[in-house]
């Protein structure tokens, strides 16, 4: 395999794989695409929130499936169909459908359930370390 130049890496690295998923609960199919590195970081960061009472970072799993699904479903041009403003409404749809698409989106973006859980736990550990330093 050839050694890539910076230009080749940046050009080729922007090609994101997609996959069509059948979602019978929604009555059809959707296309999902792999997250970019920045999108994945943003998703993982969204798995924690600041607790206003304690000032500690705590897991934020509310609508976590809908958040990833919203970031992953694209239209025929490859553009996101849902904005962050749509996440609450998307979270009100079938949990079976959301889980079906979420699992496929995790697989396509290389995210395991264990990683999602570990990311939430990492925030707890970071917060504990920050508290003990101060």
Summarize the structure.
The chain is of the alpha+beta class. It has helices spanning about 5-10, 35-45, 65-70, 85-90, 95-110, 115-134, and strands spanning about 20-25, 30-35, 50, 55-60, 75.
Task: Describe the model.
With 134 residues, this protein is an alpha+beta fold. It is built from six helices and five strands. The protein has helices spanning 6-12, 37-45, 64-72, 87-91, 95-109, 113-133, and strands spanning 18-23, 28-33, 48-50, 57-59, 73-74. The longest helix is centred in the last third of the chain and has 21 residues, at 113-133. The protein starts with 5 loop residues before the first helix and ends with a helix. The model has no long low-confidence stretch (mean pLDDT 88).
Overview features:
alpha+beta; single chain; 3-stranded antiparallel sheet; 134 residues; globular; two-stranded antiparallel sheet
Main β-sheet, spatial strand arrangement: 1-2-5
**Which structural category fits the helices and strands?**
alpha+beta
Fraction of residues in β-strands: 5-15%
User: How would you characterize the largest beta sheet?
Assistant: 3 strands, antiparallel
Mean pLDDT figure:
88
Radius of gyration, Cα only, in angstroms?
17 Å
Order of H and E elements: HEEHEEHEHHH
Q: Spans of 5+ residues with little confidence (pLDDT < 50)?
A: none
Shape: globular
How helix-rich are the residues, as a percent range?
Answer: 40-55%
- Ends distance: 50 Å
Number of helices: 6
Q: Please count the beta strands (DSSP E, at least 2 residues each).
A: 5
């Amino acid at each position: 395999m050839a050694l890539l130049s910076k230009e080749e890496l940046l050009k080729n690295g922007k090609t994101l794989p997609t996959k069509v998923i059948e979602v019978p609960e929604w009555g059809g199919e959707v296309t999902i695409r792999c997250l970019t590195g920045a999108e994945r970081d943003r998703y993982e960061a969204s798995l924690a929130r600041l607790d206003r009472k304690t000032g500690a970072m705590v897991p934020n799993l509310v609508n976590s499936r809908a958040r990833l699904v919203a970031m992953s479903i694209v239209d025929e041009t490859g553009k996101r169909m849902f904005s962050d403003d749509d996440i609450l409404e998307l979270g009100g749809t079938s949990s079976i459908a959301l889980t079906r698409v979420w699992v496929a989106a995790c697989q396509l973006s290389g995210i395991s359930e264990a990683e999602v859980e570990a990311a939430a736990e990492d925030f707890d550990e970071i917060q504990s370390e920050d508290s003990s330093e101060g």
